Amino acid sequence: MSRKGGASMVRIEQLMTWRRHLHREPELSFQEIRTTSYIIEQLQGLPGVQLRSGIDQIGVHTGVLAIVGNGNGPIVGLRADIDALPITENTGASYQSCNSGIMHACGHDGHTAMLLGAVHTLSSLYQLGTLRGTVKCLFQPAEESEDAQGKTGAQYVLEKGVLDDVEAILALHLDPELSLGKIKLQSGPVMANVNTFQLTILGTGGHGAYPEQTVDPIWLTSVVLPYLYSLPSRKLAAHEPSVLSICQISGGASTNVIPSDVMLRGTIRTYSEEARIKLVEELKRGLQIIIQLGGSYDLHVHQGEPALLNDPELTQMIEELIKEMEPNCTVIQQSFGMGGEDFSHFTRKIPGAMLFLGAQAESKTSLHQPTFNFDERAMELGMRILVDGALRMIRRRRNPNGS
Description:
By secondary structure, this protein is an alpha+beta fold. It is built from eleven helices and 18 strands. The strands form five sheets. The chain has an eight-stranded mixed sheet, sandwiched between helices. Strands 12-14-10-15 form a four-stranded antiparallel sheet. Helix 1 (12-24) crosses helix 4 (108-128), helix 6 packs antiparallel against helix 7 and helix 9 packs across helix 11.
């Protein structure tokens, strides 16, 4: 058993046991009922740990808030996401998903296991009387998907107000494309604003042999697509990170009938609010060509997660902690990319930071793939960063001028 200031640290074997159980039993966003029960089972009765769950206590039916300490300040937060994805697993692992068409393909099972280990360790510190503050550890549901109201789990938890007294918050995300012993961490934007859109291009349709008698929405689509794809490179500066992708096109049902409409769905990703607004404005402006060519359109743009912003002071503190804890660990000053992450809702209200933990498996895979897996050894380092990060956040707020 390893020790942290006299406290018991959870072994890697236990982290693996937790992770593999969760991996076998994945559940989709807002449906993490068994996952919630399992988390409660693993934490029930720990000294100094209060558990809260349910819509009345945390604002959403699933998920758990584990509060370690006696409620005295400083109060800081740790967060892990617990939901899985609608993907059919193809890893061949002995602990492969038992739920058809559902898979932990984003590492949330590992995130949950690391936070379980952190709660156990912090409870041990509480028993020793060396936890000089309170740590709110959120096992958050529904990071991957929004509900019918267009909200994710983070938004419901924030609206409930259970983190209003949290002074700083930390999270991590496994990175299967980064080797073990490397970490991506930088201040400022590290993941993107997420906008999604649905565009229906409307024509009149008709016989495929007589296109001149129709307003062909497929032809209109072919005119619009080059404009849409050109927006990031022609309407924003080259140094402004941005992506526009068309991810679905549907229209028509026959080889000799021109349809009356074509539907396109896609996403726009940006880092700055200015770029976010600009691309939506240009999208709307360019679609006027559809009207000029005799068609019409219906456009719906949904504004999802904001960009994930790492607080500069907290980011520097975590980097210093990592270098002291693991001198051989390489910290790379780099963002994670253009993906979205609803932890960003927390960092808009609470000083926060997310780091990206190298966990590349032997068979290299990426997030959200049926073959996704990661090197489980990374979880031990991740758990230690969560524990030491919480302690250092408390210490900095107790003694702002100290180390």
